[in-house]
TrEMBL record:
Keyword Repressor: yes
Keywords from the named record: DNA-binding, Repressor, Transcription, Transcription regulation
Every HTH tetR-type domain range: 13-73
Residues within the DNA-binding region(s): 36-55
Protein known as: Transcriptional regulator, TetR family
PANTHER family: HTH-TYPE TRANSCRIPTIONAL REGULATOR RUTR, HTH-TYPE TRANSCRIPTIONAL REPRESSOR KSTR2
Pfam families, A to Z: TetR_C_24, TetR_N
Protein source organism: Advenella mimigardefordensis (strain DSM 17166 / LMG 22922 / DPN7)
Length: 234
């Protein structure tokens, strides 16, 4: 590929990305039904023909905004869980870091996916729901493994996974790229919070001896042992 064609490709990718960004903003503000190709073109100072060059209709734009980013989230989570060299703590940290970073890098797409799911076609809606379910299952799998190995506290893995994913997803609404911290710092903070919220050992050493806290830890140990016994008996 020569320099001219390379530059043309990069320009085309940038314009396609700009169309998606503007469309996402308009979809959130007006809804997909209240936004036309003409609205998107005017917001960018383009002709409708220029927009049609990249997307044949508004539905294709919406599909790109929802399915692409969620498919990326599903692939990242799946690739991490498939790695045999990662212990549960490292795997969970990786899951949260990469999921948060993806959202922080593409917040508009996640907001659209969250707000306009009802406007999707049945086929698109199934694809989006399957992607979300797959991410949830991967998070739950890592948390369950951490519980089995005695690394994480005895919690409902499904609820914990929902909570951590929700924490990441919410960043699409409040994160500002021009803010005090860049997205790598924010993703790292969220990963630390996720891991520390589940680590079993951290809660086992109260700074001040306390009878109630000690009893709570004993009950936690009993719950953990009971789950091990029940899983072994199956």
């Amino acid at each position: 590929m020569n320099d001219i064609s390379t530059k043309a490709t990069l320009k085309g990718e940038a314009l396609r990305s700009a169309i998606l960004d503007v469309a996402a903003t308009l979809f959130i503000e007006r809804g997909t039904g209240g936004t036309s190709i003409q609205d998107i073109a005017e917001a960018l100072g383009l002709s409708r023909t220029a927009v049609y060059y990249y997307f044949k209709n508004k539905e294709q734009i919406q599909q790109s905004l929802t399915e692409e980013v969620l498919s990326a989230a599903r692939k990242l989570a799946g690739d991490t869980v498939a790695r045999d060299d990662l212990d549960p703590v490292t795997a969970l940290r990786a899951l949260v870091t990469q999921h948060a970073d993806l959202i922080l890098s593409r917040p508009a797409e996640f907001r659209v996916a969250d707000r306009t799911e009802a406007d999707l076609s049945p086929k698109q809606r199934v694809s989006v729901q399957n992607a979300r379910r797959n991410v949830l299952e991967n998070f739950s799998h890592v948390i369950e493994r951490g519980i089995r190995e005695g690394v994480f506290r005895m919690v409902d893995a499904h609820v914990a996974a929902f909570s951590l994913i929700g924490m990441c997803n919410w960043s699409a609404w409040w994160y500002k790229p021009e803010g005090r911290l860049d997205r790598a710092n924010v993703a790292e903070i969220m990963a630390d919070m996720a891991v520390n919220s589940l680590l079993r050992e951290a809660a086992r050493r109260p700074e001040v001896p306390d009878v109630r806290e000690s009893l709570r830890l004993v009950r936690e140990d009993l719950d953990y042992l009971e789950k091990l016994v029940l899983s072994d008996s199956k």
